[in-house]
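Anyone up for a design puzzle?
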């Protein structure tokens, strides 16, 4: 019997506008009324995840930064796995060899290297990579883009960042050059202390090797008294592989999921555009 549902956000729980549909919100509420606990497991930082929930009446647990941080339903931090400084230094040394945008995520702020004007331009490019249907001149006025800017601190150089001794849970890099990202990923994977995954083809997400969605979901649900066979998980991209490849009760890939996820998932549901998570929850509550 399913007692916990854990879902990725982008490409999974959220629609093409990166928002929760009314149907999805209703399905979550109905599941919770039946005593099912709902949680998200996302590559987003907590601050970025909250942009999808700010005006939505949904109570959940938060597994964020690809497993680097766990927060309960009161948004209190229960677990954080910070990267060692020597590890994010080694990440910086590799990323800095290339022309690409990258940010250091903490549980409070995102940090970028450069002056504020440079950071704004880089973040504009980052936003455009994921939203190419929106003209760049329009992006600056979008509330989500403004929220991202407000939560990002520009530091002049990497040495200054290190002197601040931030608690980094994740480094995230973006580029439209997919082959370059593959090359960078190979270099990063030579460090056995790191986990390197992608939520989209045009990004890399780097965390401590122990901060991965699947093992962290398992650790958290067991701390709450649940067993793996009582958990249903949803995902669409390779940073969800560690969840969908584990022996949870129901592992569900979206129709729009990466082919590797579809191979390991026990079930495939409709796409995020077609409210696949809501559809599956509805079927679950109907006894199917």
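Challenge accepted. My sequence:
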């Amino acid at each position: 019997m399913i007692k916990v549902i854990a879902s990725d956000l982008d490409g999974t729980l959220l629609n093409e506008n990166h928002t929760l549909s009314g149907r999805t919100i209703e399905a979550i509420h109905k599941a919770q009324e039946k005593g099912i606990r709902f949680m998200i497991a996302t590559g987003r930082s907590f601050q970025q995840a909250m942009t999808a929930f700010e005006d939505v009446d949904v109570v959940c647990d938060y597994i964020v930064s690809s497993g680097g941080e766990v927060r309960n339903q009161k948004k209190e931090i229960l677990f954080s796995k910070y990267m060692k400084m020597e590890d994010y230094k080694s990440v910086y040394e590799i990323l800095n060899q290339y022309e690409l945008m990258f940010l250091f995520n903490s549980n409070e702020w995102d940090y970028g290297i450069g002056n504020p004007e440079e950071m704004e331009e880089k973040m504009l490019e980052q936003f455009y990579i994921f939203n190419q249907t929106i003209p760049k001149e329009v992006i600056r006025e979008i509330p989500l883009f403004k929220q991202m800017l407000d939560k990002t601190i520009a530091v002049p150089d990497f040495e200054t960042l290190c002197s601040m001794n931030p608690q980094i849970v994740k480094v995230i890099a973006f580029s439209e050059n997919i082959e370059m990202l593959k090359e960078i990923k190979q270099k990063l994977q030579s460090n056995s202390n790191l986990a390197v995954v992608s939520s989209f083809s045009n990004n890399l997400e780097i965390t401590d090797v122990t901060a991965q969605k699947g093992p962290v979901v398992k650790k958290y649900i067991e701390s709450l008294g649940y067993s793996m066979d009582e958990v249903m998980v949803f995902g669409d991209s390779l940073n969800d592989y560690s969840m969908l490849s584990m022996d949870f009760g129901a592992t569900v890939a979206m129709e729009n999921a990466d082919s590797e996820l579809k191979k390991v998932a026990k079930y495939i549901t409709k796409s995020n555009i077609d409210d696949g998570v809501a559809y599956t929850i509805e079927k679950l509550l109907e006894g199917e």
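A detail worth pointing out: The longest strand covers residues 168-174.
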